[in-house]
Amino acid sequence: MRTRANKYNYQSGDVIGNLVFLNREPYMESESSRHPMAKFKCVCGKEIVTRIDNVKMKRVSSCGCKSGELRSKSLTKYESTELLSNGVRTIPYISEKESLRFWSKVAITAHPNLCWIWQATGERYGNFSVGKSQYKSNRIAYFLHYKEDPKELSVMHSCDNPKCCNPAHLSLGTHLENMQDMASKGRAKKNSLTH
Fold it and tell me: 47-58 burial, b for 16+ CB within 10 Å, e for fewer?
C-alpha cells in the first residue's frame, strides 16, 4: 500500500497535462493535514507552485494561461459560421446528439416516397437552431443526409412541400433554377398588375 508520502512519486521532467514537474517543495500546513507541494513549469513557460494532488486530480491543469482558451471554447460550443453572399450561413458541425434532436422533430414515414414533415417551429419552412443561428429545416436535412453543406445553392423540393425533410425529395440548384422550377409548376407569384 502506498503511503501519503510517496503516492505522488513524480520525477523531474514528468509531464502532467500542460505542466512539467520540476521538484518537490515544502509541505503546506493546514488545520487538518499536510499537503505535498511541488513546482511545475507550464507550457507557456511560467513556473508555479501548487499542491501535487490538485495537479494529479486535474483541478489545476495550467498556470491559468489555458483558462481563457477553455472559457472561450465553452462560450462558443459551435464553430463559427460564415455569412455567404446570398445571406445564408454555412452550417457548422452537428454532433450526433444534435442530429438526433433534429430528426426527433421530423415525422418520418416508412414509405420513402411520402413527405417527412417538420413538426416544430417555422411557418412556411421549418426552423432549426444550431448554437445561436437558425437554419431552414430542409437545409439541415440535406446536410445531415448527404454530408454536404448547400452553401450558396438552394435546397429544392421535388414534392413542392416547404416543410418536407425527406432527403429523397431534396436536391440542390441555383436560385435561378429554383425560380424556374417554381414557375414551371405554377407556383410563381402572380404579378400584381394583372389584377
Answer: ebebbbeebeee
Judging by beta carbons within 10 Å of its beta carbon (0-12, 13-18, 19+), is residue 77 exposed, middle or buried?
exposed
Q: What is the pLDDT of residues 116-149, one digit of tens each?
A: 999 987 678 899 998 888 899 999 999 999 999 9
CATH topology of domain 96-189: Homing Intron 3 (I-Ppo) Encoded Endonuclease; Chain A (3.90.75)
User: Hey, what's the cell of 66?
Assistant: 489555458
Q: Are strands 106-107 and 117-118 parallel, antiparallel or unpaired?
A: antiparallel
Rounded Cα distance between 100 and 182, Å, is 31
Q: What are residue 130's DSSP bridge partners?
A: 133
> Which 8-state DSSP code applies to residue 169?
G
Task: Give the three cell numbers for residue 85.
Answer: 453572399
Each domain of the chain, given as residue ranges in start order, spans 15-64, 96-189
Measured CA to CA in angstroms, residue 178 lies from 9, 35, 84, 123, 129 at distances of 68, 70, 18, 20, 24
* pTM as predicted: 0.56
- DSSP class of residue 83? B
What the block records as the C-alpha cell of 49 is 507552485
Q: How many residues does the chain have?
A: 195
Eight-class DSSP state of 167: G
Closest CA to 144 of 82, 185, 108, 96: 96
